[in-house]
Amino acid sequence: MCLPAVLCLMCAVLGGAWAQYNLQPQFSPGGDMAGFSLPEDTRPGAPVYRLQGTDPEGGLLHYSISGEHFNVDRMSGVVKLIKALDRETLDMLEVIISITDESLGGSEPNTVSLRREIRVLDVNDNPPVFQGRPYVMSVAENARIGSLLYTNISVTDRDSGVNAELDIKCLNCDEFDIETIKIDEGQYAVAVVLAKQLDYESAPGYSLILEASDSNPLFRLTATASVAVDVIDIQDQP
């Protein structure tokens, strides 16, 4: 066989092999759910993302997503939320997204998959809670000003960030004051302190009203609690 004929045969063989080689598709930047997050109050049924990719041969692509919270239109790549979210129950979703091309020249389709973590963002949907109520305390009328009188008050908030930053105050404290200590995010300890001298004969008891508010700048949630104070009489009259 002459050289030109051999070269023609080799080109035909290599060309046929190349034509049957199916290159892998790729997810496009901005279409691969990298860094994607979702507010916990997103409505089920709402479109939340669009997967996008490219195929070197220009063929059709098909999309899929794992898990129980999402589905995807396999042709358009539009992802919808199908199950309600609750950050306080689950703050991170793990999914596998996949893109598949078409078979080419008898070759098998290619599938490329990526693992993604989707952060569930907090919304202000939990009010502060005064734990361990009712609050009842007793104090002798001769207790010294500045005395720490009651430390059994705990306030919590299940939200996060500014939604769990609490401002706690007493609405009707005159003879008393409160001190607040942040234990952890959304967890506070409150103590009642004596601010003025007591007199059983003038006031044998008090009902203090405490208020806790979160720090959301647009939509604050508030809770209140009462503290019953019994003043103990001390023999101070002749």
TrEMBL record:
InterPro entries found in the cross-reference section: Cadherin-like_dom (IPR002126), Cadherin-like_sf (IPR015919), Cadherin_CS (IPR020894)
Pfam families found in the cross-reference section: Cadherin (PF00028)
Keywords: Calcium, Membrane, Repeat, Signal, Transmembrane, Transmembrane helix
Gene Ontology biological process terms in this record: homophilic cell adhesion via plasma membrane adhesion molecules
Gene3D superfamilies found in the cross-reference section: Cadherins
Signal sequence bounds: 1-19
Entries under SMART domains matching the protein: CA
Localization per Swiss-Prot or TrEMBL: Membrane
Main subcellular localisation: membrane
Domain Cadherin, residue spans: 36-130, 131-238
One GO MF term attached to the UniProt entry: calcium ion binding
CDD domains: Cadherin_repeat
GO cellular component, one term: plasma membrane
PROSITE patterns linked to this entry: CADHERIN_1 (PS00232), CADHERIN_2 (PS50268)
PANTHER family according to UniProt: FAT ATYPICAL CADHERIN-RELATED (PTHR24026), PROTOCADHERIN FAT 4 (PTHR24026:SF126)
Protein's name in the database: Cadherin domain-containing protein
